[in-house]
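For the sake of clarity, the format in which proteins appear in this thesis is described at this point. Each number in the token line that follows is a code from a learned vocabulary of backbone shapes. One such record is shown here in full, so that the layout can be seen directly:
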Amino acid sequence: MINLVEMQLKKFLTTTLVLIASRVFDIYTTYLFIPDLKGETNPLVSAFHLGWTGTLIVQAVVLVLLIYCLYYYSFKQIEVPDFGETTSLQDFISLFHFGKSGELKKLFYTFPKNKESLLYSTGGIVPQGLVVFSLLVGTSTTFLIVNPVYRNIYHAYDIPVLLYTFSALIMYAFAVKFYKAEMKSRMREASV
């Protein structure tokens, strides 16, 4: 019988491998489509003018940091002040990061009081969103390579903006799902 730690390790390793594979897929399809990176929409290239070497270094560093956050999420626990069944999701998120309710807006302009909560929530939200984003972009780039009709649609309808917008909505959905699950599991723990 598999114990809890083995299940967590299996989930961590699986998520890590899927995360790495999805990033490799996105990077590889980008290389096949635009090996010189001219016209690349990735902000590392378009805004910061990084070439392949700089982009790969930044991507590797970010990937390592995300895997660390994922590890933290998989094997650590975050303490949250007591809260009741009538606590709203917004107040729970505020308690989770700042230790008191009514502080949610601070999350958009300052680091949480509970720094560990930032590592934990990043590990619980961002890897999933980045996998979906990488698969969307990699698939879109694959279509750009093999389908001239899609290539015309891509340029005519500004598909990169749609991909980034859709990805932001997906990340938001993963965040809401994460915090709801955390709130529910902590309510369950408190009632036991």
Q: What stands out?
A: Residues 74 and 125 are 12 Å apart (CA to CA). The chain has a mean pLDDT of 92. Residues 4-79+114-191 form one domain. DSSP finds seven helices and no strands in the chain.
